[in-house]
TrEMBL record:
Keyword annotations from UniProtKB, A to Z: Flavoprotein
Organism: Marinobacter adhaerens
Name of the protein described by the UniProt record: Acyl-CoA dehydrogenase/oxidase C-terminal domain-containing protein
GO molecular function annotations of the record: oxidoreductase activity, acting on the CH-CH group of donors
Gene3D superfamilies according to UniProt: Butyryl-CoA Dehydrogenase, subunit A, domain 3
Acyl-CoA dehydrogenase/oxidase C-terminal domain segment(s): 1-29
InterPro entries linked to this entry: AcylCo_DH-like_C, AcylCo_DH/oxidase_C
Pfam family of the protein (one): Acyl-CoA_dh_1
Length: 31
């Protein structure tokens, strides 16, 4: 859950580039 909050902060700061990071993180969570 903490990671999701951190990701939200990153998304608000980064914008488009963080969207790619979010996809990579999502894949890691599935693994």
């Amino acid at each position: 859950v903490e990671r999701l909050y951190r990701d939200a902060k990153i998304l608000s700061i980064g914008g488009g580039t963080t969207e790619i990071m979010k996809e990579l993180i999502a894949k890691q969570i599935k693994l």
